[in-house]
Amino acid sequence: MKVTAEIRALIERRQAGYSLEAPFYLSEEIFALDMETIFRQHWIEVATEAEIPEPGDYVTVDLAGDSILIVRDDDMQVRAFHNVCRHRGARLCNEDKGSVGNIVCPYHSWTYNLTGALMFAEHMGEQFDRCKHSLKNVHVENLAGLIFVCLAEEPPADFADMRAEMEPYLLPHDLAGCKVAAQVDIIEKGNWKLVMENNRECYHCVANHPELTISLYEYGFGYARTDANAEGMDAFERTCNERAKQWEAMDLPSVEIEKLLDVTGFRTQRLPLDRCGESQTLDAKVASKKLLGEFRTADLGGLSFWTQPNSWHHFMSDHIVSFSVIPLSAGETLVRTRWLVHKDAREGIDYDVENLTAVWNATNNQDRTLVEYSQRGAASSAYEPGPYSPYTEGLVEKFSAWYIGRLARQIGA
Predict the structure, then answer these.
(1) Would you call 277 helix, strand, or coil by DSSP?
(2) CATH number at residue 325
(3) 33 belongs to a structural domain
(4) Confidence band for 232, pLDDT divided at 50, 70 and 90
(5) What is the tens place of the pLDDT at every residue in 239-269?
(6) Which has the closest alpha carbon to 356: 372, 344, 343, 339?
(7) Do both 194 and 136 map to the same domain?
(8) 211 and which of 92, 143, 187, 362 could share a cystine (Cβ 3.0–4.6 Å)?
(9) Are 110 and 88 in contact (CB under 8 A)?
(10) How far apart are CA 45 and CA 42, in angstroms?
């Protein structure tokens, strides 16, 4: 897309260590650039393998103006297609999720198998070549049960690097052996970047997240050492070192990996939970009695995994919480949260949904309010970029630097 001189100037003059200028949060023109440059060119996390456990199970997701159909085929492979019939373009699957034997267009009954091949098209004549009218593929990758798609003709090749680094961390939690116990979608009236910036720091956590900070160590997410927090940081680091030795002995990696400025940027770390915690719940105890994978002990801390540009995840011994951010407009963003438990865990016996979801339902609603405050503030004539804290907001700066870097590369700045 054509980039105006005004937008080019905004990108080129971005000041490191400061929040973005208001148009990055408000402008529909910049939103369109975000969709073209970020959400159509990068690997976007959109679903979990647990949502499509059987052949024919599917989910759909709207991304950057396109509907994507994600389905499991008869060989148990995850496939992704543009959710568009090759006849006259009708939407094929019109529900968020479901199960099919074949993919049948509701308009004229063109029928595709689960690999996307056109199997049946009535009244098309003897010269019609079905092989030239298969569904259009979308690039898809399954990372230890997290499903990513890329709309680009040539997707970033460094997904393989993330896979190599992350599979040892994620696979022990056996997301593929989970089921979705709950899913909650909320619409935040704020720009997607404000949602992600809010997630990338815990400066606001103590004052705003009483439920989350029951189990979450404040110092675990982006804090730098200062004279004021040295004692607390020392105690936290001693706890981390002690637990890391235990986890490494169990073949559970814990050391931080931070590659947030890579094209396919990501970060991970396994950290202890507070109050001798086992899980992110209101009492810091497991929410599900049925532990994941082959775990035999509950106090395995919390493994956090962040990806640029749109997801974060928390892996614990008993459940996983997975978050996807999907931009809707310059001022609206879908935040989708899924809680996953062992596929054999029994609701009402092994886990209670209200207890399972309490912490992050509360936290998501609190964060929605904060994002909406920020969106309204950015619309004020008094708004100007403010400085990030060098002690608590370094990871926000890395998100903003990654974002501006991707735009700058697109426009050749």
Answers:
(1) coil
(2) 3.90.380.10
(3) no
(4) confident
(5) 899 999 999 999 999 999 999 999 999 999 9
(6) 339
(7) no
(8) 362
(9) no
(10) 10
